[in-house]
């Protein structure tokens, strides 16, 4: 899990969209497994900041979306939908429309949809940025729990230092104007992590202060 | 609040009908009529089957034209919104035809399609297709960019994109277009019945106007009104049935 951390406007999201193949870079290239990215790839899935659920699809149809596009057989889709809705804690809500779900639940659905295609890389664009503080912390812990069960390579964009330290194995600190990578730090805290323990951890506190200084410069 | 709204509407209707009744009775029946006379004429024309037969002719034309207008207008609108080349190549003609008073084209259509049902269908179709096409185009252009990005990120093909995103997102616009089209289509229908081989409710209007049977003249007019209202409400109900995710939005407004 690599967290891209930086102030608004430093190009974190743009970088993520370039990795997903949604934007073609003016210069330079992105390679995944040695192959150049020229457009969206089926083995890379994104979790969007504004959830990106289809309002006219029920939860189960939203979760099934990626698999349906890939033309998977009906039975496999049913199995995957049941598995991933349960994994993100939305079992029983399969028939709900997005407007009937809270923001946190909608983002759980966004995560289930991305995980369902079993991507080799998961891209997350400030996925908890528009949630309230409590929901946000719950989902951070949930994400850590889910990824412990189904390990993935994750590129996670955030502007929260705490979130980056709690979730990340490495933190890429970016600066704005010009958008540059300042520093790549290794977090080095053991897993599983507990949100309160990380907050009180001496190493995490030093790291936090260091990143804060780095961002302020 | 809701009961209040119903009460005010009913009271207003009662006042208007009473004033009309009292004034109407004092005027020469060749020039004007009154509600009870219209109701009586309605009973007579409906009872003899005359109204039903002519209404059937009119609705047949309207139904064919609506099917054609929906079938042509929606795909054309989506193509224009999704592909810039298609839009650039065609928007000139679409806008020109939409701005043309369709009545002006009636003689030409008679020349090409004759006087019978096909000509009427073409006329009504021309009245109906442009609001549907233009609304569809607007709706598709208004599709949430974020959701378009989701579809691209998940590697959607263009046909799947229509199904998953473009058509559901544009549905409220399309439905508004269909409601507009129904209003315009009724105008086109009566015009077609006046100017091609005379038939349907248009025939009843011309016939009873020429015979100075004013009470009977009001029967097809009221029928047209009621038909318009029913069809538009039907389109609205169909929209809510097709788009259950909008029910909440509809309740809130």
The class by helix and strand makeup of chain A works out as alpha/beta
One letter per element, helices H and strands E, the order of chain A comes to: EHEEEHHHEHEHEEHH
Quaternary organisation of the protein chains: heterodimer
Helix content of chain B: over 70%
Unreliable stretches of chain A: none
Report helical residue fraction of chain A.
40-55%
The chain pair forming the largest interface, with residue counts per chain, is:
A-B, 23 and 19 residues
Shape of chain A: globular
The main pleated sheet of chain A reads as: 6 strands, mixed
Query: H/E element string of chain B?
Result: HHHHHHHHHHH
- Strand composition percent of chain A: 15-25%
Taking the sheet with the most strands of chain B, its summary is: none
Which class do the helix and strand fractions of chain B yield? mainly alpha
Provide the gyration radius of chain B in Å: 22 Å
Average residue pLDDT of chain A: 93
Measured between the Cα atoms of the first and last residue of chain B, the distance is 14 Å
Strand content of chain B: under 5%
In total, the number of strands of chain A is: 8
Strand order of the largest sheet of chain A: 4-5-6-1-7-8
């Amino acid at each position: 899990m690599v967290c891209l951390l930086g102030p608004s406007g430093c190009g974190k999201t743009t970088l993520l969209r370039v990795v997903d193949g949604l934007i073609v870079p003016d210069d330079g290239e992105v390679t995944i497994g040695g192959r150049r990215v020229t457009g969206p790839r089926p083995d890379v899935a994104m979790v969007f900041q504004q959830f990106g659920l289809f309002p006219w699809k029920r939860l189960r149809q939203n979760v099934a979306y990626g698999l349906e596009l890939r033309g998977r057989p009906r039975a496999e889709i049913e199995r995957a939908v049941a598995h991933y809705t349960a994994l993100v804690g939305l079992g029983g809500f399969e028939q709900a429309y997005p407007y009937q779900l809270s923001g946190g639940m909608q983002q759980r659905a966004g995560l289930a949809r991305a995980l369902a295609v079993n991507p080799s890389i998961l891209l997350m664009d400030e996925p908890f940025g528009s949630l309230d503080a409590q929901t946000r912390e719950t989902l951070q812990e949930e994400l850590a729990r889910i990824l412990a069960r189904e390990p993935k390579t994750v590129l996670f964009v955030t502007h929260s230092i705490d979130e980056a330290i709690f979730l990340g194995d490495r933190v890429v600190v970016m600066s704005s104007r010009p958008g540059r990578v300042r520093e790549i730090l290794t977090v080095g805290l053991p897993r599983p992590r507990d949100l309160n323990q990380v907050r009180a951890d001496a190493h995490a506190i030093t790291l936090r202060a260091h990143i804060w200084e780095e961002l302020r410069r | 609040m809701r009961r209040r709204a119903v009460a005010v509407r009913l009271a207003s209707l009662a006042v208007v009908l009473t004033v009309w009744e009292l004034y109407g009775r004092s005027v020469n029946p060749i020039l004007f009529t009154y509600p009870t006379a219209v109701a009586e004429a309605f009973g007579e024309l409906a009872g003899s089957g005359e109204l039903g037969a002519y209404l059937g002719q009119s609705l047949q034309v309207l139904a064919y034209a609506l099917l054609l207008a929906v079938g042509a207008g929606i795909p054309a609108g989506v193509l224009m919104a999704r592909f810039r080349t298609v839009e650039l190549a065609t928007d000139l003609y679409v806008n020109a035809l939409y701005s043309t008073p369709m009545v002006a084209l009636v003689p030409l259509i008679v020349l090409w399609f004759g006087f019978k049902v096909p000509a009427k269908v073409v006329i009504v179709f021309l009245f109906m297709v442009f609001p549907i096409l233009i609304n569809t185009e607007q709706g598709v252009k208004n599709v949430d960019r974020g959701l378009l990005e989701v579809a691209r990120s998940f590697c959607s093909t263009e046909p799947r994109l229509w199904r998953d995103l473009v058509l559901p997102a544009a549905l409220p616009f399309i439905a508004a277009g269909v409601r507009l089209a129904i209003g315009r289509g009724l105008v086109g229908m009566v015009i077609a019945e006046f100017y091609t081989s005379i038939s349907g409710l248009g025939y009843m209007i011309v016939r009873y106007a020429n015979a100075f049977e004013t009470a009977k003249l009001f029967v097809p007019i009221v029928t047209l009104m009621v038909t318009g209202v029913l069809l538009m409400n039907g389109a609205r109900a169909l929209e809510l049935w097709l788009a259950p995710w909008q029910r909440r939005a509809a309740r809130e407004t």
